[in-house]
Sequence to fold (219 residues):
Amino acid sequence: MAGVRSARTTFFDKKLVIDRIGKATADALMQAANTLKKIAQRSMRKVPPRSRGGKPRKVSKPGEPPKAVRTHPYLRQFLFAMWDMENDRAIIGPVKLGSENPPVPGLLERGGTVRRKNPRRKKRVVGGVGEMTTGRTTGNTTRLVHGTNLGSVNVTYAKIRSGAQAGRANLIAESLYGNEVVQARIAARPFMGPALKKTPPAMLKAIQKRAARGTKRGR
Fold:
């Protein structure tokens, strides 16, 4: 998956591409690509960051195109069309954003597994506050924590004054919440595949002919 900068060097209106496949072919592919891109963009409905009343916004269901969150609908915005100089083919789709591995756009299109930081785990260090014991009630420093690996459990917190206490707090936190890095399964929410199916067959046939003609010219 190409990044934004590398993708822009092989747009269909660039001299490098025109010299490779010819202006007529490049123009036809760019017109068809823009049509497919618009279909994909329109399928990703824009939604506000929060719904009314401060409730979490509605997310798309597995199998549906993802939502485009205002004011940063990055996936919807960064759909590009370019010519793959190495493999002599047209590419239409999202570019890689950031350093995610695997890239988020590909995960949304096909689904997959991603490693991410456990939101319930915070590294305990000397000078901070951490878990000292579980199961006991010792006044204001103890509270009932729900949804842990051990169920609902009383956890006593205190200021960490030594490396040994920090190590103990991290071990207790691991027993309660799991590893610092966890695997999460991302269900597919395709947007390019459905857009391709909605593209008029006559246009797809024209794309294939133009692309084949451009490939022969390049060789």
